[in-house]
Design brief:
The protein is of the alpha+beta class. It is built from four helices and six strands. The protein starts with a helix and ends with a strand.
Length: 129
């Protein structure tokens, strides 16, 4: 992991015991981490930058923004965008055109069927640097 500050600022899905052990280890090995951890700069990340690897689109660097959904308390929608003209933006356009043309047929009723966008075989993975 080359950029732990950006990873430390991003929520991660680890169990409490593993997290406690990791925090203890980092605190004993890094003055920078110990100082940052002591500051307790925990917050809800409403905007930021995510680096992900998509099986079709490749490596993407996307800005995101969280939006609360007032009609559904506790629900949050995230919008991801690439900087205009960037490689990530071009990949998103490619993925959008690819998704618009890839369809599968699913039975809706016994006598009819309807087409839906084809799901990806593998979901994207977040890249942490």
């Amino acid at each position: 992991m080359t950029s732990w500050p950006s990873c430390a600022a991003t929520p991660a899905g680890i169990r409490t015991t593993e997290l406690s052990e990791l925090i203890g280890e980092l605190a004993t090995r890094s003055d920078e981490f110990r100082t940052g951890w002591a500051a307790h700069n925990a917050r809800f990340h409403r905007t930021g930058l995510k680096r992900i690897h998509h099986p079709v689109g490749g490596d993407l660097e996307l800005g995101y923004e969280a939006m609360e959904l007032p009609a559904n308390p506790g629900w949050t929608m995230f919008a991801y965008t690439g900087d205009p003209g960037s490689a990530s933006d071009e990949s998103l356009k490619l993925l959008a055109s690819w998704a618009a043309t890839a369809t599968v047929t699913c039975p809706v009723a016994s006598s009819s069927s309807q087409s839906y966008p084809a799901p990806l075989e593998r979901p994207y993975t977040e890249v942490r640097s």
